[in-house]
Write a structure and sequence with these properties.
mainly beta; 16-stranded antiparallel barrel; about 0% helix; globular; disordered N terminus
Length: about 260
Amino acid sequence: MKNLFAFITILFITCLLTFTYSCKKTNNNAQAGPYVPNISYPKIDYEIDSVNGDTIYFFYNSQGNLIKEKYTNIYVDLVYTTNKVNVNVYENYSLTYTYEYFLNSSGLATTAIETSLNKSETNNNNLHFINNNVLKNTTDTTYYYYNSYGYLISAKYGTELYNYTYLNGNLTTEISPYDTTTYQYFDGKLNTVGNNNIGVNFLGKQNKNLLKTTIYYNSGQPYQTVNYNYEYDINGRVKTEIINSNYSNQTTFYKYVN
């Protein structure tokens, strides 16, 4: 869930992309709708952000997992072991953040520990798979919960609980301590710009379809609407994502590995 990095971020945003019930109670309300089979998504080589002009490059290992992100003066290294993913974030060649994602037997992160090593605040909006809600300049722990299909259904950031509801493989509702967000999708348009496309598979399945509209509510009243439009390459993959909201416009350009 990119808006994931947002995917998304993600999901990304995201017992969201995007959080004070027990795990058992959350799972009772965790069905994601009909099972969506695994899809072979094309991998993203790099993307260009129209707002700041940054080009973000992605690098993969032989298993297709993301092992590095690089752009401007920031880069991210990922190291995989049997039950953990270590993520190191560097800014101006100085280690700024470390993240430890502890995995379950399905390879999904159940706990993440973030440590901030100095008072510099990295632009985490560009780190697709890292949550942006954690406290800065401290150590903080995030807990993730999934349903039996591998979708992230809730996450607890500190004392804040976020809950996610899905239908037919797409996130439809996110409920946070601050507001409620609903999502609508383009039928038949495969999501080729989600977290799995940059090799981040340890934070649950990405949305099946491309996002069409996001609506934010506070006290039951909508206060912001974000609309998404896309241009496609000859293979039907998203090459341009155009985002329009009440406050700003943004365009992202994508290039795929092959």
